[in-house]
Amino acid sequence: MPEMTAEDRELQEKVHDGFLVESEADMTENYKQALITQLLVQGDTELISAPAYFMAARDAPTTNTMVSATAIIQDELGHANIAYRLLEDLGVDRHWILYEREPHEFKHPYGFDQPLENWAELVVANGFYDRAGITLLGDVHRNTSYGPLKRALVKVDLEENFHLRHGEVWMKRLSTSGPEAREKLQDAVDWMFPMGVEWFGMPDDKKRHTTQLDFKLKGMSNDELRQTWLQAVVPLCDELGLDVPARVDEESGEVELTYDFPVQYDPEEKKWLFDEPISWDEVWDRWRERGPMNEEYVNSVRRSRFEIEEMLAA
Amino acid sequence: MSDGFDVDRIYEVFARQKREDRLEHVGAITAPNASLARVYAWQTYDEATWFEMVVAPRDSFEAVNREEAPFTLEPREEGAAT
């Protein structure tokens, strides 16, 4: 991490006193770089959720459900567009963002490198991953010191809540729709729950820097965000009779994982190897290696542009 | 204004939900021409049923009370990638 300067510390103090950064003129270089990274993660996550959801939407049970899934995908593309638009104001080239990076350089979580293969997996993605999105972006919305992002997130938060409701209503529906639907739902939960736990990154005691918190680009630490997510997701699963490797402490309301987090994942089998605890270096290696759908998802959002260019050139 | 696909411009998006509402800034989009700017704005900012939505190129804004208005400021450098 870069060395913090006197200007950085001055800005950190100002933003913690409530100062809103409104343009590049208000920023230090370190603030700007931290904000660029945050917006790339945000935009890439929204962007890559679209092909992932689209893959699963093809298994939609009826035309109406296909329409609601497609509406969610359109929202996600809009959210990506908003994050990338904010990046342009920081001098980041849109063409570079979309077309000049290697697929493995995109910054979305490992969970969106996995195939979503049926309707149950789509609705669990809405219930778990969009919940993760709301947890993370809701915190940014409340706390960010960057004014343009704070305002942009009003719309994003609103729409993510629709996606979450879609996920939770459908999880409930599948959980009461007979043994076959229930089994598919439980299978989805089995591999997607630990994916959600990993979504929030390294635990606080392993993290080496707190730049985003220092510049007030977010308000809560990784562990606090993960706990917020767990306290929403685990009671929901308990209510629906779905097994998850976690339990709610009745006195404190805190959720405790009942496995040795983090553990290794087998993407081909879509199975977590709960008896293989690994180090965070090994998690990083897996993330950096990217998952099975990484290239296909990235290429699928790029494909149509090249087809249109070819068509126009012909 | 050219209708070609060559130069991207930033368009600010303004909208109001009801006839009596103030026109409010809801966001911005980048588009190569005004027609596409209208489409992108309508598709991106679809969170409400708008009574009215308009777009205007950012570079058409005139700063009134400060020389370097945050809203109209250009990026410090082009193509800065991480």
Oligomer: heterodimer
Largest sheet data of chain A: 2 strands, antiparallel
* Uncertain residue segments of chain A: none
Spatial arrangement of strands, main beta sheet of chain B: 2-1-3
The rounded Rg of chain B comes to 14 Å
Distance between the termini of chain B: 34 Å
Query: What's the average pLDDT of chain B?
Result: 84
User: What is the number of beta strands of chain A?
Assistant: 4
- C-alpha geometry of chain A: globular
List the secondary-structure elements of chain B in sequence, H or E: EEHE
How is the CATH topology of chain A named?
Ferritin
Strand content of chain A is 5-15%
Task: Give a brief rundown of this model.
The complex is a heterodimer of chains A (314) and B (82). Chain A has eleven helices and four strands; from the N terminus they run H-H-H-H-H-H-H-H-H-E-E-E-E-H-H.
Walk me through the structure:
The complex is a heterodimer of chains A (314) and B (82). Chain A has 11 helices and 4 strands; from the N terminus they run αααααααααββββαα. In chain A, a hairpin with a 4-residue loop joins β3 and β4. In chain A, α3 runs antiparallel to α6 and α5 packs parallel to α7. The longest helix of chain A has 29 residues. Chain B is α+β, with helices and mostly antiparallel strands. Chain B has a domain of 54 residues: Ubiquitin-like (UB roll). Chain B contains 1 helix and 3 strands. Chain B has a 3-stranded antiparallel sheet with strand order 2-1-3, with helices on one face. Chains A and B meet through α2, α3 and α6 of A and β2 and α1 of B.
List keywords for this structure.
heterodimer, A: 314 residues, Ferritin, two-stranded antiparallel sheet, 64% helix, B: 3-stranded antiparallel beta sheet, 13% helix, 27% strand, flat
What is the element layout, followed by pairings?
The complex is a heterodimer of chains A (314) and B (82).
Chain A (H helix, E strand, L loop, with lengths): L5 H11 L12 H29 L5 H26 L5 H7 L18 H25 L3 H29 L3 H21 L11 H4 L7 H18 L6 E3 L6 E3 L5 E4 L4 E7 L2 H10 L4 H20 L1
Antiparallel strand pairs in A: 1-2, 3-4
Helix pairs in contact in A: 2-3, 2-5, 2-11, 3-6, 5-6, 5-7, 5-9
Chain B lengths: L8 E8 L7 E8 L2 H11 L7 E6 L25
Antiparallel strand pairs in B: 1-2, 1-3
